[in-house]
Design goal:
The chain is an alpha/beta fold. The chain contains six helices and six strands, in the order E-H-E-H-E-H-H-E-H-E-H-E. A six-stranded mixed beta sheet has the order 1-5-3-2-6-4. This is Formate hydrogenlyase maturation protein HycH.
């Protein structure tokens, strides 16, 4: 898995959001732990990671024990997708300190409340219907940081954002991926 670490250079004289520098130097320099070592415990979690749906696959019938097949058929009949497994890949990570600064940069409102669900519940899901709520708030926060989003394509693999503007830019790319591709969603988690 490729990992890209991003930090925006400070523009001279640009207005910065509180904490937009990404916290202490120690916080900025610390890399996020490997994505496989994650739990959502609020006391020990140090990072926030957003995962993107990478692929889905179906667990074939032959691997389902005979005694639970009737349960599987029932759940499929009522609309549950038992046996379909979503493979989520880490896409955007940062420290909880930077994520807290992101929430402050977003200010009060529904967008910040949606993302604040990570701190409250340990994880959130972002679907297409959340993009119109989040995208304008992220663009406004970038403007408040004195940053203009750079046109381009999202980095392949995991991006570790070391500051608020880098996180906001990469999050915009993630929102575009969710909005433009069918059946794609993202999940944000508080992780240790």
């Amino acid at each position: 898995m490729s990992v890209t670490v991003r930090q925006r250079p400070s523009a001279p004289g640009a207005g910065r959001a509180p904490g937009a520098d990404g916290g202490t130097g120690a916080e900025r320099g610390r890399a996020v732990r490997p994505a496989a070592a994650h739990t959502t415990d609020g006391r020990t979690a140090r990072d926030v990671v957003f995962y993107r749906l990478g692929k889905k696959f179906v667990d074939h019938e032959r691997s389902i024990p005979e005694d639970v097949r009737s349960v599987l058929y029932y759940t499929l009949a009522i609309g549950h997708h038992t046996g379909v497994i979503d493979c989520l890949e880490p896409r955007l990570a940062t420290s909880r300190v930077v994520f807290s600064d992101v929430l402050a940069a977003l200010g009060a409102g529904e967008a910040a409340d949606k993302l604040r669900g990570i701190e409250r519940f340990g994880e959130i899901e972002l679907k297409k219907e959340h993009v119109p709520l989040l995208k304008p708030a992220v663009l406004a926060a970038l403007e408040g940081c004195g940053t203009v989003p750079e046109p381009g394509t999202a980095a392949a693999g995991l991006v570790v954002a070391a500051d608020v503007p880098s996180w906001l830019e990469e999050f915009l790319f993630l929102l575009d991926e969710v909005q433009c591709e069918p059946a794609v969603y993202a999940m944000g988690r508080r992780v240790s």
